[in-house]
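pls ignore typos typing on phone
DPM + seq
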Amino acid sequence: MIVIGSRESQLAMIQANHVLKTLKEQFPDKEFEIKGMTTTGDQVLDTALSKIGTKALFTKELEVALDLKQIDLIVHSLKDLPTQMPPGMLLGAVMERENPLDCVIMSIKHQQYRLDTLPPNSVVGTSSVRRSAQLKAKYPHLVFESVRGNLNTRLRKLDEDDTYSCLLLAYAGVHRMGWDSRITQVLEPEVMLHAVGQGALGIEIRDGDAQILDLVRSLNHNPSELRCFSEREFMRQLEGGCSVPLGVSTDLIGDQLTLTGSVTSLDGKQQLKASLKTDLSGDHPQKLQQAQQLGSDLAQILIKQGATTLLQEIRHQQS
Ligand code: DPM
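k done
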């Protein structure tokens, strides 16, 4: 029996079931089951994510179970998986990425609006400093307030409370929940850069477990892996956790990989942003290294522009 670990939210279970189904198709002789677990990030709902102070909010408990061999692989939203893997753990595969962009869901009462036409002081619900920072400068007439809880809870708060006019969410999560019809606006990269790894599923395994690695490599999608490795290396170099206003965008056309990255001050008034491209060549492992090099090179460009100081200021404001 091969045990797949997952968080217990509806979205996490949809994602784990997708992995289970794909593995079953590829390995009909093997047996798989899903074990759901609750993580710190699921339990602590009243504190801003940036203040809980651990980067492994949504992953720690699952990783302990993986280490104890209670489970054999973990299905994560890749963007929730810290760029620094814990000792003994490996990001074994990246599955084909959904649309990585962010989107807007207006409340039932605000269906006719878009962000730019919302009345002054309308409240946008988001707990992502990446999203609020990037939009604050563009839409100074809007107010940004935290909203926590899983996607079901948030949508209920949006429609039942009068607090929020809209929510900002990842398109991928909304789509997997089957809520496409609620999307009012998709935010193109010119308006908002998405989170590192957004829209992709990452499979975490024990480093050195050759049998499981073999299984999960069949789930890997090479172009998605190249893009996400590039983004993750950019973030690793800048030491950005999940609560840092760091945005990215990647394009892979043929073998040409383009990466755009930004760091934005919390009030949105200061933004460092740059793009870099490279031509990938050789076999897939070589291309992965070149993709990571691109991420690292882009981080160096932003560091030269002052990213280290800006990030320090941001962390200071958050603590
Ligand atoms: C991370 C962030 C958020 C999640 C921060 C960010 C959003 C937090 C919030 C790292 N993880 O994006 O700037 O809105 O309060 C999360 C979602 C998904 C995975 C939901 C979402 C689904 C999409 C995917 C939460 N993690 O971002 O709307 O699989 O990429």
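The mean pLDDT is 93. The radius of gyration is 19 Å. more later
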